[in-house]
């Protein structure tokens, strides 16, 4: 989300920005470069819906350069499936040449030997690849396309082959739902076998409906039998930093109760701010700008890069209005978000309570 050294060096500047709802720096920017997807995942609507064409490649490259001039340290590319756009290596090269760290999330099925090589050599420094089960049949049931498991595994192997050419980190993203949770105990072994550097367990969103959402008994079984095995093996293989990472729905009764309601922040933002409006932004495929992914479906866009510069949006009245609302209790969508909690805790410790 941010550069700890930048925050430490500029803590007074950030504190004043927070206290006065002024702009700081978009240190970490997520860009959703494409809406559609080539898979048919049961927890996702990207393949079900048709949306307007994405922002042109030239405009995205202009914005990346603008972000570099504003102090952005990291850009994360996602979709939909970003590899459906042929311009991803170009985006990576423009950002990397400007001193920005670039990472990406992909389902991996469209990654070829040539694309993996160019991405790594162009400066890609992190890739999150989606694998929803170490079991091939389960993964393909969730992803909705036969052969998807083989293609995704191949992508991990290709990135691993070329990672020595750069400083690439490979992580496996797994959405934990009622469909797959009982198959996940051996996920660390698969990740290690493929040469991945880490695994991310992501709780299924509450918008996915009753069929996929975890019931009380599902979470209890997962926490008692599956998560401890994942934690033990992942920690031994260096794929997780803490055993807490293996419990995306919480561990104690109060956390599980909130987790079942989709409140994965576990009450943190009842008493603490989220600093995302000062350090982060989301640029959607159609140019709309939002505070983050969680506000994308709940709050109108703050601006649009097609007819505005990003600087105009970042320093404008609409963004200031959002910043004024981020002091505890934060926005309602924040209660569902666990993306930035650890980073927010570190900023809180650095700039001090106010």
Summarize the structure.
The chain has 354 residues and is α/β, with parallel strands linked by helices. The chain has helices spanning 4-9, 11-19, 57-69, 88-97, 113-122, 136-143, 148-162, 187-194, 216-236, 253-260, 276-279, 310-314, 317-324, 341-351; strands spanning 28-32, 74-78, 101-106, 124-130, 169-176, 198-203, 280-283, 288-290, 303-304.
Written overview of the protein:
This protein has 354 residues and is an alpha/beta fold. Helices cover 38% and strands 13% of the residues. It has 14 helices and 9 strands. It has a 9-stranded mixed β-sheet with strand order 6-5-4-3-2-1-7-8-9. A hairpin with a 4-residue loop joins strand 7 and strand 8. The mean pLDDT is 93.
The helix content is: 25-40%
Order of helices and strands: HHEHEHEHEHHEHEHHHEEEHHH
Mean pLDDT: 93
Largest sheet at a glance? 9 strands, mixed
Proportion of residues in β-strands:
5-15%
Count of discrete alpha- or pi-helical segments spanning 4 or more residues? 14
What best-fitting shape do the alpha-carbon axes yield? Answer: globular
Distance from first to last alpha carbon: 21 Å
Major β-sheet strand ordering: 6-5-4-3-2-1-7-8-9
What structural category arises from helix and sheet content? alpha/beta
> Residue ranges: pLDDT <50 for 5 or more in a row?
none
DSSP E strands, number: 9
Oligomeric category:
single chain
Radius of gyration: 20 Å
Helices and strands in order:
Elements: H1 4-9, H2 11-19, E1 28-32, H3 57-69, E2 74-78, H4 88-97, E3 101-106, H5 113-122, E4 124-130, H6 136-143, H7 148-162, E5 169-176, H8 187-194, E6 198-203, H9 216-236, H10 253-260, H11 276-279, E7 280-283, E8 288-290, E9 303-304, H12 310-314, H13 317-324, H14 341-351
Parallel strand pairs: 1-2, 1-7, 2-3, 3-4, 4-5, 5-6
Antiparallel strand pairs: 7-8, 8-9
Helix pairs in contact: 3-4, 4-5, 5-7
């Amino acid at each position: 989300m941010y550069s700890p050294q930048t925050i430490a060096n500029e803590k007074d500047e950030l504190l004043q920005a927070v206290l006065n709802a002024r702009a700081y720096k978009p240190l970490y920017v997520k860009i959703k470069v494409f809406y559609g997807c080539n898979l048919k995942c049961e927890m996702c609507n990207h393949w079900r819906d048709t949306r307007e064409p994405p922002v042109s490649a030239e405009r995205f490259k202009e914005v990346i350069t603008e972000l570099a001039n504003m102090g952005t340290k990291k850009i994360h590319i996602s979709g939909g499936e970003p590899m459906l756009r042929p311009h991803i290596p170009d985006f990576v090269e423009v950002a990397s040449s400007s001193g920005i760290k670039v990472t990406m999330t992909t389902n991996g099925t469209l990654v070829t030997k040539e694309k993996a090589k160019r991405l790594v050599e162009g400066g890609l420094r992190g890739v999150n690849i989606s694998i929803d089960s170490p079991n091939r049949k389960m993964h393909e049931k969730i992803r909705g396309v036969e052969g998807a498991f083989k293609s995704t595994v191949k992508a991990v192997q290709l990135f691993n082959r070329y990672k020595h050419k750069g400083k690439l980190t490979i992580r496996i993203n797994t959405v934990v739902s009622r469909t797959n949770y009982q198959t996940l105990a051996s996920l660390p072994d698969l990740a290690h076998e493929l040469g991945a550097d880490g695994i991310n367990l992501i709780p299924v969103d509450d918008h996915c409906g009753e069929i996929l959402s975890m019931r009380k008994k599902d979470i209890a079984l997962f926490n008692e039998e599956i998560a401890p095995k994942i934690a033990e093996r992942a920690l031994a293989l260096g794929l997780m930093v803490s055993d807490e990472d293996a419990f995306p729905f919480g561990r104690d009764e109060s956390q599980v109760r909130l987790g079942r309601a989709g409140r994965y922040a576990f009450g943190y933002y009842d008493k603490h701010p989220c600093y995302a409006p000062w350090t982060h932004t989301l640029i959607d495929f159609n140019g709309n700008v939002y505070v983050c992914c969680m506000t994308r479906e709940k709050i109108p866009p703050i601006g649009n890069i097609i007819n505005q510069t990003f600087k105009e949006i970042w320093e404008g009245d609409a963004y200031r209005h959002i910043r004024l609302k981020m002091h505890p209790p934060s926005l309602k969508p924040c209660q569902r978000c666990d993306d930035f909690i650890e980073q927010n805790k570190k900023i809180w410790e650095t700039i001090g309570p106010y």
